[in-house]
Design brief:
Order of helices and strands: EHEHEHEHEHHEHHEEHEEHEHEE
CATH topology of the largest domain: Alpha-Beta Plaits
Number of strands: 13
CATH architecture of the largest domain: 2-Layer Sandwich
Distance between the termini: 83 Å
CATH superfamily of the largest domain: Nucleotide cyclase, GGDEF domain
Largest sheet: 8 strands, mixed
Strand content: 15-25%
CATH class of the largest domain: Alpha Beta
Number of domains: 2
């Protein structure tokens, strides 16, 4: 069956005049297009308007007890009726009377005897104007709400990016890959870095000094992590773990990892110059390994991190532990996959806790600044 839609509700017009003949004429003029309500005095008009506000009011000025000016002023003073358009319909034609009507809050002025086409045209025009005003206000309200929501969303994004790398945060927010937190296996390049001399430093200096140095260290390293597109897996106080090729796949994860590490050691030189002036002696060692890791959400309900676990992360941590201050040690696989762009030299085989056989280790050859 075809669904028949209801016709749109007709606007309601309230006509206020103390002369019955005028009320009858106005009713006959308007009833074809509008729902017409009639009031023969100001008090009655205010009561109708307060109970069921009309869409527009045609208001006589010269009425006993309460004239049209006072009625209009009371309508405009009440928040419930202040927005109803009021058109004065009167025999008063002096410009002073018109000005007084506009000052009271009227939107238009029709003189008696009325011309039905003029009345209909004016009513139609002001109803359309009121509808446009309401639509504009609704749109502005929606826009204001959207702006507020946008600001709140931006603040939420900024907070999210404080705790996740940009790559992870963008995936979380875009919704393009809602399953990227699921557990999986992927080959990654893992970077561990760690400050040397940090324990002695914390014992010899105040908490404020320690936090200031850590803040400077994290800011400098974090800028390079973001610039290279690495995923910061965790802070370990004076160290960090970063990996490449997840959640965003990259073409040369080893090269990206080693290039970042080189930039980090160069940045560390600048930090050391500042710290030495303040009497701090700190250096940084870095270890890099490549291999398959288990990646996904790690933790418990209410508190989860995005991380990587496995032999490759352990190996990178062990390499970092073996590295001297200012040194970058990498696995043989990392050296092979980056040798076309970066110079390495073998430092021989080393034994590592948790690994059955000694493994060959390479050092990145750093050029002096």
């Amino acid at each position: 069956m075809m669904e028949i839609s209801s016709p749109p509700a007709r606007p309601v017009i309230l006509v206020v005049d103390d002369t019955p003949q005028n009320l009858s004429i106005m009713h006959d003029v308007l009833e074809g297009d509008y729902i017409v309500k009639l009031a023969n005095n100001g008090a009655r008009a205010l009561k109708i308007a307060a109970t069921t506000p009309p869409d527009l009011i045609l208001l006589d000025i010269m009425m006993p007890e309460m004239d049209g000016y006072e009625v209009c002023q009371r309508l405009k003073a009440d928040p419930a009726t202040s927005r109803i358009p009021v058109i004065f319909v009167t025999a008063l034609t002096d410009s002073t009377n018109e000005q007084q009507g506009f000052d009271a809050g009227a939107v238009d002025y029709i003189t008696k005897p009325i011309s039905p086409p003029v009345v209909l045209a004016r009513v139609k025009s002001h109803l359309a104007l009121r509808k446009q005003t309401e639509e504009l206000e609704a749109w502005n309200q929606t826009l204001t709400q959207r702006i507020a929501e946008g600001v709140a969303e931006r603040e939420r994004l900024d907070r999210l990016r404080r705790f996740f790398s940009p790559a992870v945060a963008d995936l979380l927010l875009s919704g393009e890959d809602e399953n990227f937190l699921r557990t999986r296996r992927r080959e990654i390049a893992v970077v561990f870095l760690d400050l040397r001399g940090y324990t002695e430093f914390t014992e010899q200096h105040t908490a404020e000094e320690v936090m200031q140095v850590l803040g400077e260290f994290h800011a400098a390293m974090g800028e390079l992590i973001n610039a290279r597109g690495g995923t910061l897996e965790r802070f370990t106080g004076d160290g960090m773990m970063i990996f490449f090729n997840d959640p965003v796949e990259v073409e040369h994860p080893c090269l990206d990892a080693v290039s970042m590490a080189i930039d980090m050691q160069a940045s560390m030189v600048n930090l050391q110059k500042q710290w030495m002036i303040r009497g701090y002696t700190l250096t940084m060692g870095i270890g890099i390994a490549q291999g398959v890791a288990t990646i996904g959400a790690i933790g418990f309900e209410g508190r989860r991190d995005y991380g990587a676990i496995g032999g490759v992360t352990n190996f990178a941590a062990r390499l970092c532990g073996k590295a001297d201050g200012g040194q970058i040690l990498v696995s043989a696989q990392v050296a092979r996959n980056s040798a076309s762009s970066i110079d390495f030299q073998s430092v021989g085989k080393m034994a590592f806790k948790g690994f059955a056989e000694p493994l060959e280790v390479f050092e990145v050859i750093l050029t002096s600044a």
